[in-house]
Amino acid sequence: MSAENLTLQGKHIRLEPLDHHHVDGLAAAAGDDAELYRWSPVPRGKADAASYIGTALAWRDAGSAVPFAIVRASDSTILGSTRFWNIERWSWPQGHPSHGRGVPDACEIGYTWLTRSAIRTAANTEAKLLMLTHAFEVWRVLRVCFHTDARNQRSRAALERIGGQFEGILRAHRMAADYISRDSVRYSIIAAEWPKVKDRLLQFMEAG
Does 3.40.190.10 match the CATH number of domain 3-207? Predict the structure, then answer.
């Protein structure tokens, strides 16, 4: 998997490989709006952005994540970040059609956040469309998962709107942005569901 060179180009945004030159842009995109990101950890200032990127790149180098900067296509302004992560490669036995296929079998999309001005625009929908298309049609994964804080009603509604299937709640699953343990709501999309999800995302894009 060529994580370093994976750029996904859309009409409104592009997802380009997250790197150290995005520090200033990420810090500016996050701003100081604590209430907006009450459920999502985002980098605060340049030092925090550098650490955020360093961690993402370490996961990339370990083969467990593919992190992106979300960039507005019209003027290259950085709008936020997202990533493939929790990437799974299953041990298919010799003789199985999937043995040695060399691409992920399942993954998660997460660590997604946008600057305030990009929320409720085409940016998030197109980012999901680009990433899900790559996951299901290039990698040909069997499933894509999502987690969000159980208190994050906006994120839960967005996942249900595109066709994510609720799988349950993982209690005390991870640390929340407010530094307490959070319950995570789990959603998934499987390969058989992707055509309908894709149609729905394309309809949302056409509707603006």
Answer: no
Cα(15)–Cα(127) distance, integer angstroms: 7
- pLDDT on residue 73: 96
Q: Model-level pTM?
A: 0.93
| Cβ contact 81:70 at 8 Å | yes
HEC string for 33-69: CCCCCCCCCCCCHHHHHHHHHHHHHHHHHCCCEEEEE
Measured between alpha carbons, how far is 11 from 173 in angstroms, rounded to an integer? 36
Q: In whole angstroms, how far apart are CA 120 and each of 95, 126, 150, 155, 208?
A: 47, 11, 20, 11, 10
Neighbours of 48 (CB within 10 A): 16
Taking only the tens place, the pLDDT of each residue in 85-111 is 999 999 999 999 999 999 999 999 999
